[in-house]
Design brief:
The structure is a single chain. By secondary structure, the chain is an alpha+beta fold. The protein contains 6 helices and 9 strands. An 8-stranded antiparallel beta barrel has the order 1-2-3-5-6-7-8-9. Strand 8 and strand 9 form a beta hairpin. It is globular and about 60 Å long.
Length: 255
Amino acid sequence: HFKGHFKGQAASQAAEDGAGDGQHEDWSWKVVCGANPAYDAFPSQHQTFYPSAKNPKNLWYDPVFMVETVDGRRIWCKRHYKCTPRAGGAAEGPAGGAESRGDGEEEKAGSLGGSTPGLWTLTTLDNGVASRELWTVVDAADDLSWCVLHYTGAAARAGSSYVGALLCSRDGQWPESAAQGTPGFERVEAALAKCGLELWELYGHGPPERGSYMWGAENLAWAEANPPDLEPIGEMTVQAWRQQERAAAAAAGGL
């Protein structure tokens, strides 16, 4: 979705949604590894960014990921975030967006066209819990074969906050353009260093030659037999989408 289209923060938006190389997958990125086990540890994470039909400066973000239930079953889960470009400032953290001024000015600046490329505010309301996250495109390969994203967020009602970073590629495997000993590998290291991280701190992938837990053979086999729903949720809320899905399932069961 949104492949080959550049609007607003052209280079930043292209890096965020994975556009620009003429490919037409149903996702923007797959997560190779992340820095926060509570947030990044879910395997087979698909990230889909696409433009808002109501405001071309904004994006929607629908992550789809695998969850193993307490009784050992695998299921797909889906979330829905609004992405608004924001302006940077003196309070920005080491990744260029790790801390918010907290006064709403970054969203206002983004909506007025005064945003800083690479900085995004993500918001969602899910199961009564409002979450707000600040995302930064730290770096991306020139051919968009990989990117490093930094995030920090909070769910005020739940009293929780979190911070981390993601290395993403098109297929979820360690990108060939960032193999050890290459300039790409050094760029990935440098990008993570801007987030205060070392490669060994990341969850989901060992050294590049050892493969990925996120996209291991067992997970891939299950995903092939049970394809995820990657259809964009669009302008509706995630609650409305879930009601729609339940109604469709009920109708199908009654046939």
